[in-house]
Protein backbone atom coordinates (compact mmCIF):
# COMPACT_ATOMS: atom_id res chain seq x y z
CA UNK A 1 0.00 0.00 0.00
CA UNK A 2 1.22 3.49 -0.81
CA UNK A 3 0.64 5.48 2.36
CA UNK A 4 1.93 8.68 0.76
CA UNK A 5 -1.14 9.04 -1.44
CA UNK A 6 -2.91 12.33 -0.73
CA UNK A 7 -6.17 11.22 -2.30
CA UNK A 8 -8.85 9.63 -0.10
CA UNK A 9 -9.40 5.95 -0.63
CA UNK A 10 -12.25 5.20 -3.07
CA UNK A 11 -14.51 2.24 -2.52
CA UNK A 12 -14.52 -0.05 -5.57
CA UNK A 13 -17.40 0.52 -7.98
CA UNK A 14 -18.24 -3.15 -8.42
CA UNK A 15 -17.73 -6.48 -6.73
CA UNK A 16 -18.24 -5.30 -3.18
CA UNK A 17 -21.09 -5.89 -0.76
CA UNK A 18 -22.08 -3.50 2.02
CA UNK A 19 -24.03 -5.00 4.93
CA UNK A 20 -25.56 -2.98 7.76
CA UNK A 21 -24.04 -3.98 11.06
CA UNK A 22 -24.99 -1.43 13.72
CA UNK A 23 -26.73 1.90 14.15
CA UNK A 24 -26.47 4.82 16.52
CA UNK A 25 -28.21 8.17 16.80
CA UNK A 26 -25.87 9.87 14.33
CA UNK A 27 -24.27 7.12 12.23
CA UNK A 28 -24.78 3.72 10.66
CA UNK A 29 -21.97 1.13 10.59
CA UNK A 30 -21.52 -1.20 7.62
CA UNK A 31 -19.42 -4.27 6.97
CA UNK A 32 -17.63 -4.32 3.61
CA UNK A 33 -16.85 -7.48 1.68
CA UNK A 34 -14.74 -7.42 -1.49
CA UNK A 35 -14.75 -10.11 -4.17
CA UNK A 36 -11.08 -11.09 -4.19
CA UNK A 37 -11.33 -12.51 -7.72
CA UNK A 38 -12.46 -9.22 -9.28
CA UNK A 39 -10.17 -7.39 -11.68
CA UNK A 40 -12.22 -4.23 -11.14
CA UNK A 41 -10.92 -4.05 -7.59
CA UNK A 42 -7.33 -3.68 -8.71
CA UNK A 43 -8.20 -0.86 -11.12
CA UNK A 44 -10.06 1.35 -8.65
CA UNK A 45 -7.19 2.27 -6.33
CA UNK A 46 -3.83 1.72 -7.97
CA UNK A 47 -1.97 2.80 -4.84
CA UNK A 48 -3.72 0.33 -2.54
CA UNK A 49 -3.75 -3.40 -1.99
CA UNK A 50 -7.54 -3.62 -1.81
CA UNK A 51 -8.04 -6.70 0.32
CA UNK A 52 -5.27 -5.83 2.75
CA UNK A 53 -6.43 -2.24 3.00
CA UNK A 54 -10.04 -3.02 3.90
CA UNK A 55 -9.08 -5.77 6.32
CA UNK A 56 -9.96 -4.79 9.89
CA UNK A 57 -12.07 -1.79 8.85
CA UNK A 58 -15.77 -0.93 8.86
CA UNK A 59 -17.60 1.76 6.92
CA UNK A 60 -19.31 4.49 8.93
CA UNK A 61 -21.86 6.76 7.23
CA UNK A 62 -23.49 9.76 8.86
CA UNK A 63 -27.22 10.22 9.20
CA UNK A 64 -29.24 13.24 8.12
CA UNK A 65 -29.90 14.60 11.60
CA UNK A 66 -29.20 18.08 13.07
CA UNK A 67 -26.28 16.86 15.19
CA UNK A 68 -24.10 15.69 12.28
CA UNK A 69 -21.78 17.75 10.09
CA UNK A 70 -20.46 16.87 6.61
CA UNK A 71 -18.11 13.93 7.02
CA UNK A 72 -15.07 15.72 5.58
CA UNK A 73 -15.59 18.55 8.09
CA UNK A 74 -16.10 16.30 11.12
CA UNK A 75 -13.05 14.25 10.14
CA UNK A 76 -10.87 17.36 10.07
CA UNK A 77 -12.15 18.24 13.55
CA UNK A 78 -11.28 14.75 14.77
CA UNK A 79 -7.79 15.03 13.28
CA UNK A 80 -7.20 18.44 14.82
CA UNK A 81 -8.92 18.23 18.20
CA UNK A 82 -9.16 14.57 19.26
CA UNK A 83 -6.37 12.53 17.66
CA UNK A 84 -3.52 14.50 19.33
CA UNK A 85 -4.96 13.80 22.81
CA UNK A 86 -4.43 10.03 22.76
CA UNK A 87 -2.01 7.36 21.63
CA UNK A 88 -3.07 5.78 18.30
CA UNK A 89 -3.73 2.40 19.90
CA UNK A 90 -6.17 4.03 22.34
CA UNK A 91 -8.57 5.21 19.63
CA UNK A 92 -10.94 3.73 17.11
CA UNK A 93 -8.97 5.15 14.20
CA UNK A 94 -10.71 6.63 11.20
CA UNK A 95 -9.91 7.88 7.73
CA UNK A 96 -11.86 9.55 4.98
CA UNK A 97 -13.22 7.35 2.19
CA UNK A 98 -14.78 8.62 -1.05
CA UNK A 99 -18.15 7.09 -1.95
CA UNK A 100 -19.63 9.80 -4.18
CA UNK A 101 -19.05 7.82 -7.38
CA UNK A 102 -21.12 4.90 -6.09
CA UNK A 103 -24.45 6.72 -5.63
CA UNK A 104 -25.05 4.18 -2.89
CA UNK A 105 -26.95 6.31 -0.35
CA UNK A 106 -30.45 5.99 -1.92
CA UNK A 107 -30.20 2.20 -1.95
CA UNK A 108 -28.91 2.02 1.61
CA UNK A 109 -31.74 4.28 2.76
CA UNK A 110 -34.20 1.95 1.06
CA UNK A 111 -32.69 -0.86 3.13
CA UNK A 112 -33.09 1.17 6.33
CA UNK A 113 -36.76 1.75 5.54
CA UNK A 114 -37.15 -1.99 5.10
CA UNK A 115 -35.50 -2.56 8.47
CA UNK A 116 -37.77 -0.10 10.27
CA UNK A 117 -39.52 -1.86 13.12
CA UNK A 118 -41.18 0.84 15.25
CA UNK A 119 -42.75 -1.58 17.72
CA UNK A 120 -39.71 -3.74 18.33
CA UNK A 121 -36.50 -3.61 20.29
CA UNK A 122 -33.06 -3.23 18.80
CA UNK A 123 -30.11 -5.57 18.83
CA UNK A 124 -28.10 -3.13 16.77
CA UNK A 125 -26.77 -0.49 19.14
CA UNK A 126 -23.50 -2.30 19.67
CA UNK A 127 -20.79 -3.51 17.33
CA UNK A 128 -21.76 -7.16 17.20
CA UNK A 129 -23.65 -8.79 14.32
CA UNK A 130 -27.35 -9.28 15.11
CA UNK A 131 -28.41 -12.92 15.70
CA UNK A 132 -28.62 -15.02 12.53
CA UNK A 133 -27.86 -11.98 10.40
CA UNK A 134 -31.08 -10.19 11.31
CA UNK A 135 -31.15 -6.44 11.79
CA UNK A 136 -33.99 -4.44 13.28
CA UNK A 137 -33.99 -0.71 13.89
CA UNK A 138 -34.86 0.55 17.35
CA UNK A 139 -37.81 2.85 17.91
CA UNK A 140 -35.34 5.65 18.62
CA UNK A 141 -33.68 5.30 15.19
CA UNK A 142 -36.76 4.53 13.13
CA UNK A 143 -37.48 7.25 10.59
CA UNK A 144 -33.91 8.60 10.41
CA UNK A 145 -31.81 7.98 7.31
CA UNK A 146 -28.39 8.54 5.80
CA UNK A 147 -27.35 12.00 4.65
CA UNK A 148 -26.37 12.69 1.07
CA UNK A 149 -22.61 12.89 1.51
CA UNK A 150 -19.77 12.07 -0.88
CA UNK A 151 -17.61 10.79 1.96
CA UNK A 152 -17.74 8.20 4.69
CA UNK A 153 -15.21 6.96 7.21
CA UNK A 154 -13.26 3.74 7.42
CA UNK A 155 -13.01 2.91 11.13
CA UNK A 156 -11.27 0.25 13.19
CA UNK A 157 -13.31 -2.96 13.23
CA UNK A 158 -13.99 -3.71 16.89
CA UNK A 159 -16.40 -6.57 16.29
CA UNK A 160 -15.50 -9.93 17.88
CA UNK A 161 -13.60 -12.37 15.67
CA UNK A 162 -15.48 -15.66 15.82
CA UNK A 163 -12.40 -17.69 14.94
CA UNK A 164 -10.68 -16.36 18.05
CA UNK A 165 -13.71 -16.87 20.32
CA UNK A 166 -13.53 -13.25 21.40
CA UNK A 167 -15.93 -11.02 23.29
CA UNK A 168 -16.27 -7.29 22.69
CA UNK A 169 -18.00 -5.10 25.24
CA UNK A 170 -19.01 -1.49 24.73
CA UNK A 171 -20.06 1.15 27.24
CA UNK A 172 -19.97 4.90 27.74
CA UNK A 173 -17.63 6.03 30.56
CA UNK A 174 -19.53 9.35 30.73
CA UNK A 175 -18.41 12.05 33.22
CA UNK A 176 -15.37 10.52 34.93
CA UNK A 177 -14.59 13.80 36.65
CA UNK A 178 -17.22 15.91 38.43
CA UNK A 179 -17.55 19.36 36.95
CA UNK A 180 -16.08 22.20 39.02
CA UNK A 181 -19.43 23.96 38.64
CA UNK A 182 -21.56 21.48 40.58
CA UNK A 183 -22.65 22.58 44.09
CA UNK A 184 -19.94 22.04 46.74
CA UNK A 185 -22.40 20.00 48.85
CA UNK A 186 -23.06 17.57 45.98
CA UNK A 187 -23.56 13.91 46.90
CA UNK A 188 -24.33 12.86 43.33
CA UNK A 189 -22.12 13.22 40.28
CA UNK A 190 -23.56 14.40 36.97
CA UNK A 191 -24.41 10.89 35.71
CA UNK A 192 -26.01 9.81 38.99
CA UNK A 193 -27.98 13.06 39.32
CA UNK A 194 -29.29 12.75 35.78
CA UNK A 195 -30.16 9.09 36.31
CA UNK A 196 -32.05 9.84 39.54
CA UNK A 197 -34.07 12.56 37.82
CA UNK A 198 -34.98 10.33 34.90
CA UNK A 199 -36.12 7.51 37.17
CA UNK A 200 -38.15 9.87 39.35
CA UNK A 201 -39.88 11.49 36.38
CA UNK A 202 -40.49 8.16 34.65
CA UNK A 203 -38.64 9.25 31.55
CA UNK A 204 -38.39 6.29 29.22
CA UNK A 205 -35.13 6.10 27.33
CA UNK A 206 -34.99 3.78 24.36
CA UNK A 207 -32.81 0.67 24.84
CA UNK A 208 -31.92 1.71 28.39
CA UNK A 209 -32.67 -0.05 31.65
CA UNK A 210 -33.32 2.85 34.00
CA UNK A 211 -32.82 0.67 37.05
CA UNK A 212 -29.36 -0.43 35.96
CA UNK A 213 -26.57 2.09 35.60
CA UNK A 214 -22.95 2.64 36.50
CA UNK A 215 -21.56 5.50 38.57
CA UNK A 216 -18.63 6.49 36.33
CA UNK A 217 -16.54 7.71 39.26
CA UNK A 218 -16.07 4.07 40.27
CA UNK A 219 -14.11 3.46 37.08
CA UNK A 220 -11.38 5.84 38.23
CA UNK A 221 -11.63 5.47 42.01
CA UNK A 222 -8.35 6.46 43.69
CA UNK A 223 -9.10 5.28 47.24
CA UNK A 224 -6.09 3.15 48.34
CA UNK A 225 -8.15 0.43 50.05
CA UNK A 226 -11.47 0.55 48.22
CA UNK A 227 -10.61 1.25 44.59
CA UNK A 228 -10.35 -2.38 43.42
CA UNK A 229 -13.81 -3.08 44.85
CA UNK A 230 -15.08 -0.19 42.73
CA UNK A 231 -13.35 -1.60 39.65
CA UNK A 232 -14.83 -5.03 40.34
CA UNK A 233 -18.34 -3.63 40.74
CA UNK A 234 -17.87 -1.72 37.49
CA UNK A 235 -16.61 -4.78 35.62
CA UNK A 236 -19.51 -6.88 36.88
CA UNK A 237 -21.97 -4.24 35.69
CA UNK A 238 -20.35 -3.84 32.27
CA UNK A 239 -20.15 -7.58 31.59
CA UNK A 240 -23.43 -8.55 33.31
CA UNK A 241 -21.50 -11.24 35.16
CA UNK A 242 -20.96 -11.99 38.88
CA UNK A 243 -18.03 -10.27 40.56
CA UNK A 244 -16.36 -13.61 41.25
CA UNK A 245 -16.43 -14.62 37.57
CA UNK A 246 -13.05 -14.85 35.77
CA UNK A 247 -14.18 -12.28 33.19
CA UNK A 248 -15.14 -9.69 35.81
CA UNK A 249 -11.93 -10.28 37.74
CA UNK A 250 -9.87 -9.88 34.58
CA UNK A 251 -11.63 -6.70 33.48
CA UNK A 252 -11.29 -5.20 36.97
CA UNK A 253 -7.56 -5.90 36.83
CA UNK A 254 -7.35 -4.17 33.44
CA UNK A 255 -9.19 -1.11 34.80
CA UNK A 256 -6.74 -1.05 37.70
CA UNK A 257 -3.60 -1.39 35.59
CA UNK A 258 -4.41 0.39 32.34
CA UNK A 259 -4.07 4.17 32.05
CA UNK A 260 -6.74 4.77 29.39
CA UNK A 261 -9.71 5.63 31.62
CA UNK A 262 -7.56 7.79 33.87
CA UNK A 263 -6.24 9.59 30.80
CA UNK A 264 -9.82 10.26 29.71
CA UNK A 265 -10.68 11.52 33.20
CA UNK A 266 -7.68 13.85 33.27
CA UNK A 267 -8.58 15.30 29.87
CA UNK A 268 -12.16 15.87 31.01
CA UNK A 269 -10.82 17.70 34.06
CA UNK A 270 -8.41 19.76 31.97
CA UNK A 271 -11.07 20.95 29.54
CA UNK A 272 -13.62 21.48 32.32
CA UNK A 273 -11.25 24.04 33.85
CA UNK A 274 -11.22 25.92 30.54
CA UNK A 275 -14.95 25.86 29.85
CA UNK A 276 -18.30 26.61 31.47
CA UNK A 277 -21.79 25.27 30.92
CA UNK A 278 -23.06 28.54 32.38
CA UNK A 279 -21.54 30.65 29.61
CA UNK A 280 -23.73 32.40 27.07
CA UNK A 281 -22.03 30.65 24.17
CA UNK A 282 -20.26 27.32 23.80
CA UNK A 283 -16.51 27.70 23.59
CA UNK A 284 -14.27 25.34 21.66
CA UNK A 285 -13.04 23.96 24.98
CA UNK A 286 -16.59 23.18 26.10
CA UNK A 287 -17.29 21.34 22.85
CA UNK A 288 -14.16 19.21 23.38
CA UNK A 289 -15.14 18.58 27.02
CA UNK A 290 -18.63 17.43 26.04
CA UNK A 291 -17.16 15.25 23.28
CA UNK A 292 -14.92 13.51 25.81
CA UNK A 293 -17.91 13.00 28.13
CA UNK A 294 -19.99 11.20 25.52
CA UNK A 295 -17.56 8.77 23.90
CA UNK A 296 -17.71 4.96 23.94
CA UNK A 297 -15.11 2.47 25.09
CA UNK A 298 -14.76 -0.80 23.16
CA UNK A 299 -12.93 -3.60 24.96
CA UNK A 300 -11.88 -6.82 23.24
CA UNK A 301 -11.38 -9.92 25.42
CA UNK A 302 -9.99 -13.27 24.30
CA UNK A 303 -11.39 -16.70 25.12
CA UNK A 304 -9.45 -16.66 28.40
CA UNK A 305 -11.08 -13.33 29.38
CA UNK A 306 -7.86 -11.35 28.97
CA UNK A 307 -8.22 -7.82 27.59
CA UNK A 308 -6.33 -7.72 24.30
CA UNK A 309 -7.46 -4.35 22.94
CA UNK A 310 -9.31 -1.27 24.18
CA UNK A 311 -10.20 1.77 22.10
CA UNK A 312 -12.25 4.93 22.53
CA UNK A 313 -14.72 5.73 19.76
CA UNK A 314 -17.72 7.94 18.99
CA UNK A 315 -15.51 10.98 19.47
CA UNK A 316 -17.25 13.25 17.00
CA UNK A 317 -16.63 16.88 17.93
CA UNK A 318 -19.79 18.23 19.56
CA UNK A 319 -21.61 21.05 17.85
CA UNK A 320 -21.91 24.38 19.67
CA UNK A 321 -25.58 24.35 18.64
CA UNK A 322 -26.21 21.89 21.49
CA UNK A 323 -25.15 24.45 24.11
CA UNK A 324 -28.68 25.53 25.01
CA UNK A 325 -29.77 21.95 25.72
CA UNK A 326 -26.59 21.28 27.74
CA UNK A 327 -27.15 24.41 29.80
CA UNK A 328 -30.85 23.70 30.36
CA UNK A 329 -30.18 20.15 31.55
CA UNK A 330 -27.46 21.30 33.94
CA UNK A 331 -29.61 24.07 35.39
CA UNK A 332 -32.47 21.64 36.02
CA UNK A 333 -30.18 19.34 38.00
CA UNK A 334 -28.98 22.27 40.12
CA UNK A 335 -32.29 24.08 40.62
CA UNK A 336 -34.26 20.92 41.43
CA UNK A 337 -31.68 19.74 43.98
CA UNK A 338 -30.59 16.52 42.25
CA UNK A 339 -26.87 17.04 42.86
CA UNK A 340 -27.32 17.52 46.61
CA UNK A 341 -30.06 14.96 47.22
CA UNK A 342 -32.55 17.74 47.91
CA UNK A 343 -35.12 16.84 45.29
CA UNK A 344 -38.77 17.16 46.30
CA UNK A 345 -40.17 14.50 48.65
CA UNK A 346 -42.51 13.00 46.08
CA UNK A 347 -39.54 12.45 43.72
CA UNK A 348 -37.03 11.28 46.34
CA UNK A 349 -34.43 8.77 45.10
CA UNK A 350 -31.65 6.81 46.87
CA UNK A 351 -28.15 8.28 46.65
CA UNK A 352 -25.96 5.38 47.79
CA UNK A 353 -24.90 4.30 44.30
CA UNK A 354 -22.80 7.42 43.71
CA UNK A 355 -19.19 7.48 44.84
CA UNK A 356 -19.59 11.11 45.93
CA UNK A 357 -21.87 9.90 48.73
CA UNK A 358 -19.28 7.48 50.13
CA UNK A 359 -18.44 8.28 53.75
CA UNK A 360 -14.87 7.14 54.43
From TrEMBL:
It catalyses: 1D-myo-inositol 1,3,4,5,6-pentakisphosphate + ATP = 1D-myo-inositol hexakisphosphate + ADP + H(+). One of its GO terms (cellular component) is nucleus. GO terms for molecular function: ATP binding; inositol-1,3,4,5,6-pentakisphosphate 2-kinase activity. GO terms for biological process: inositol phosphate biosynthetic process. It comes from the Eukaryota. Has kinase activity and phosphorylates inositol-1,3,4,5,6-pentakisphosphate (Ins(1,3,4,5,6)P5) to produce 1,2,3,4,5,6-hexakisphosphate (InsP6), also known as phytate. Phosphorylates Ins(1,3,4,5,6)P5 at position 2 to form Ins(1,2,3,4,5,6)P6 (InsP6 or phytate). Belongs to the IPK1 type 1 family. This is Inositol-pentakisphosphate 2-kinase. It comes from Monilinia laxa.
